[in-house]
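debug: dumping io for the single-chain case to check the tokenizer round-trip. Nothing else runs in this session.
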Amino acid sequence: MPFPSPADVPSPGAGETTTVLPFFVYGTLRPGEPNHDLFLRGRTLTEEPARMPGMALYDGPGYPYAVENLGGGGGGGAGGRGRGARTVSGEIVTAHPQHYAELLRTLDQLEEYAPGDPANLYERVERAATLADGTVVRAWVYVAAPTVAAGLRARGRLIESGDWRLRG
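debug: decoded output
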């Protein structure tokens, strides 16, 4: 998979990282979903089906939240909800090098993410995803911020399949 090198990416703005990674998308940014056309169309090199282990998927107000499992796979909540190893389905999206810095800023804005802001709903973190052929790649993924994640584990609606498209 061709990833842009850091030398190919324009300098980031304040508070942004220079680590160049693809993005793991699992909700409204997936192909066929409304935000894909608005934010990703024409800015990507590849979009490949993938799964991200160690996460549970919760339904939000029109969009999902990926919640990292506690303690390396627990993911427990009230009444044992979310227990066991979970996996989220989505796509690995590799940006065109000339669009990478702009796309990173745009997705951070869409997800209302600012580095170090305690009011974030999402955090952008680097995690491993597995492609359909078994290849493991590192990618950026937006996960529920700690306070949001705690509320979802306690009271949220778990998407058992781990797939936003199959939420029912």
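debug: round-trip ok. The beta strands are 23-25, 44-53, 55-59, 64-68, 87-95, 122-131, 136-144, 157-158.
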